[in-house]
Amino acid sequence: MEPVEALERIAFLLERQGAVTYRVQAFRTAAAVIGELSGEEVRRRALNGSLARVKGLGPKTSGVVEEALAGRVPGYLARLTAEAGGPLVDGERGQRLRRALRGDCHLHSNWSDGGSPVEAMARAARDLGHRWCVLTDHSPRLTIAHGLTADRLREQLTLVAAVNEQLAPFRLLTGIECDILDDGRLDQEPELLAELDMVVASVHSKLRMDAAAMTRRLVAAVGNPLVDVLGHCTGRQLTGTLRPPSQFDAGLVFAACAAYDTAVEINCRPDRLDPPRPLLRQALDAGTLFAIDSDAHAPGQLDWQIYGCARAEECGVPADRIINTWTARQVTAWTGTGSTPGR
Ligand SMILES: [Zn+2]
Ligand SMILES: [Zn+2]
After folding, report:
1. What residue ranges are annotated as transmembrane (predicted)?
2. Start-end of CATH 3.20.20.140 domains in the chain
3. pLDDT tens digit string along 4-48?
4. Which listed ligand is nearest to 202 at the C-alpha?
5. Quick one: which of 219, 292, 305, 309 is 20 to 30 A from 271 by CA?
């Protein structure tokens, strides 16, 4: 195993396990630093014991490099694999749907509040077997998450084009997780939103507004032709700072999603698992499409899609109503035209 591979695998497993960013950052930084050095210099420093003095490396990460160079599986990686490398859910739960997925419509890079560069997120998605994924960093008003101004988003589109050249035939689609403002309008220039392959719209503020106002807000958003996916519709938070689900008339909102061909997201983050099962079943009965999305903020979190697959399977969501089972071409035709190909 190459040193960089060992360091990246450790970071991936920590992220998949839900580790906070600072625990993972040392391994991501070390992988980047080692990747920049020549193989010869890494070996020379490993031999004379000076690896740990390289900026960005420490005793633990240089130990991992030395063990990998010696042809051993690093002890830390072996322990982590035993402890956290197994399946995230029991048995076959969700596996059938997971195998049917070709992509992920919601993930963040370090351009907003994610922990890794765009390329790293795309490569990790590809290595998990995906054919495509959508980069959906936050919109301007979410300053706490470094939401992208229109100019920065335009700049990001250039980067996405370059990543696509590197990773073809894998496709990184352009996108945004756009804030739904209090009145249901979107937090980005419409002309720019129209250029993107996919728009996920989510509520991140005033989650406790009264049900009638929240219903109007969500219906306005999902009825906007620029919106493709309604992100984590209740906003509930299951761990850390707990937050109850927002109150709204789910019958009206899901009917609007079905009428305007906006997919309902099944958010896979263990701290969200949104919508709750009763609402998921209600959306199913209303005839909506679905997007099973990791909402990953780090490469290892891309593996969390299995949680949403398990819940979708439990609720009887058929694969052909899940947009992640489509090809990139089908997805972009659908978001571009508002009609679903082959259905
Ligand atoms: Zn969000
Ligand atoms: Zn998100």
Report:
1. none
2. 95-337
3. 999 999 999 999 999 988 889 999 999 999 999 999 999 999 999
4. 1
5. 219
What is the CATH T-level fold of the domain 95-337, as seen in this structure?
TIM Barrel (3.20.20)
Name the maximum alpha-carbon separation found in the chain: 69
Rounded to the nearest angstrom, the distance between the alpha carbon of 81 and the centre of ligand 1 is 30
Cβ-contact 177, 109 below 8 angstroms: no
Distance 267 CA to ligand 1 centre (A): 9
339: pLDDT strictly greater than 70: no
Q: Ligand 2 centroid to 50 CA: how many Å?
A: 41
pLDDT at site 192 = 96
Angle 39-48/59-69 helices, nearest 10 degrees? 110
φ, ψ (nearest 5 deg) of residue 125? -65, -45
Q: Using CB atoms within 10 A of its CB, is residue 342 exposed (0-12), middle (13-18) or buried (19+)?
A: exposed
Distance from the alpha carbon of residue 328 to the mean position of ligand 1, in angstroms: 23
Instruction: Determine contact, residues 216/233, Cβ cutoff 8 Å.
Output: no
Q: Give CATH 1.10.150 domain extents, the chain.
A: 3-84
Report whether pLDDT(90) > 70. yes
Q: How far is the CA of 58 from the centre of ligand 1 (A)?
A: 34
> Could you tell me the distance, in angstroms and rounded to a whole number, from the CA of residue 260 to the centre of ligand 1?
21
Q: Which ligand is nearest to the CA of 137?
A: 2
Question: Once rounded to an integer, what is the mean pLDDT over residues 252-259?
Answer: 98
Span 161-174, average pLDDT = 97
* Size of the chain in residues: 343
Closest-CA residue to 65 (of 7, 107, 26, 114): 7
Residue corresponding to tokens 């979190």: 301
pLDDT in tens, 236-253: 999 988 999 999 999 999
